[in-house]
Amino acid sequence: xxxxKRQPWVVGVSGASGTPYAASVIRAxxxxxxxxxxxxxxxxxxxxxxxxxxxxxxxxxxxDLGSWLGSDDGLDDVRYWPAxxxxxxxxxxxxxxxxxxxxxxxxxxxxxxxxxxSKDLLQRAASxxxxxxxxxxxxxRETPLNGVTLKHxxxxxxxxxxxxxxxxxFYAGGSTVRELVDFVAGRVLDAVDVPHSLxxxxxxxxxxxxxxxxxxxxVPVEGE
Length: 224
Ligand SMILES: Cc1cc2nc3c(=O)[nH]c(=O)nc-3n(C[C@H](O)[C@H](O)[C@H](O)COP(=O)(O)O)c2cc1C
Description:
By secondary structure, the chain is of the alpha/beta class. The protein is built from 8 helices and 6 strands. The longest helix is centred in the last third of the chain and has 15 residues, at about 175-190.
């Protein structure tokens, strides 16, 4: 009897503001029992350093990832690939990945993926994901958007990617930064059908989330 084949989600972290979105997605994938193949772009090292104070190092990725996620839970299910390693597993379509989540995605990554540039492993893995017709979620973080990025996003949509802006909704009753981050991460997992409990779902009733235990802390609902 062989062991079950490992089928990871590739998580590509590019250098946009919003590294907490990536941390929440990775934590939730691991909590759901999913394997993760992690790629961190060169620019993402700057955003991780800026937003968390962690200098993310290839040689010490496990310790640095544990610090970033705030826990070592599930790290045995993570495989890390340096962004310059074009011989890495996710650079081939025969590597058994389930799909890829680019979170957060820069406008540069959006352009590179839309145009098929493959300038680093993150972009190459995304191109592979598209050519293999696997799910690709691109969680773009920029505002406002210029015309060329809008064109690239339309191109990604046409190629079958899910364009999912890092745009938290407030209907789920979240009022802390963590809850708003988790809302976006939850929508990323929704796009690939991975179960999670990152936010309270809309149930068809105005104000319901605010009335549920743990929902809507500090967010008054008009008329109540
Ligand atoms: C602190 C910091 C924040 C940034 N935030 C964004 C952002 O929110 N969106 C974006 O598209 N680029 C942002 N950039 C610029 C990208 O990092 C830059 O365009 C880079 O070339 C992207 O490379 P990558 O796509 O390989 O990660 C930011 C850069 C820094 C240093």
